[in-house]
TrEMBL record:
The lineage of its organism: Eukaryota, Viridiplantae, Streptophyta, Embryophyta, Tracheophyta. InterPro entries: PsdUridine_synth_cat_dom_sf, PsdUridine_synth_TruA, TruA/RsuA/RluB/E/F_N. GO terms for cellular component: nucleus. This is tRNA pseudouridine synthase. It comes from the Eukaryota. Gene3D superfamilies: Pseudouridine synthase I, catalytic domain, N-terminal subdomain. One of its GO terms (molecular function) is RNA binding. Belongs to the tRNA pseudouridine synthase TruA family. Residues 196-229 are annotated as: Disordered. GO terms for biological process: mRNA pseudouridine synthesis; tRNA pseudouridine synthesis. It comes from Panicum virgatum (Blackwell switchgrass). Keywords: Isomerase, tRNA processing. It catalyses: a uridine in tRNA = a pseudouridine in tRNA.
Amino acid sequence: MRWESARKKRVVLRVGYVGTEYRGLQKQRELSADSTIESVLESAIFKAGGILESNYGKLQKVGWERSSRTDKGVHSLATMISLKMEIPDRAWENDPDGISLASFINSNLPNNVRVFSILPAQRSFDVRRECLYREYFYLLPAETIGIKDGCSSEEVQEHLSEFNSILKGFEGNHPFHNYTARAKYRKVLAGRQRRVKGASSTLKSMSSEMGMEESSSEENTPSEHDEDLNISSMIDSGVCEDSCMNDIAKGSENRVQIQARWLYPI
């Protein structure tokens, strides 16, 4: 199915998909044409008449934007895609939700990808920045948190309670660099270290030029508050290596060590 294009208009598509067979949402040049959600979606919009042949394959030419991204095998119920699309005359007449437009695109899509609606948007609309919140659901086998066949309801609740207490430890701002690719982390770390060293040298030079006198030994003694600030700044700036983080952890008496009993049998 294909419509006759009359003009170009920025629109917003509400898209849902089952990502099991895909390598994520975002289109990637090195991957095959049908390996990502955006690749098959772009192809379907082109076949429906929504993208000119001269712009096909070049998402930047149609101002393609997404509200969020998903990785390989991840599903989505409501991902918003925005682009400047070729649309027919009186596209939303008697069809304010753009269901008819969506049906044209869906006719060219596989069954595991669907466009639910197409709505008009302003030129300045930024689908990523206008998103108020994102909600994620994670599914995992019950056995991974100690719930097995034959567990009583009391045991199930105990495991759930213990697992929820572990998740609480991940809330807030923490140095999650151990969860990133080592090569990428070290590149960022090296750049930050150079900037920190450069700033330190500049401050020392300024102090020397201004003729600042050394303070007494009592004044130079770092307080507990100063030590906490130094640790906090090291964490926030990403300067801490793994060994540094280990030292901080050892010196922190109030740190709660979280362990799951079924992973660490006594």
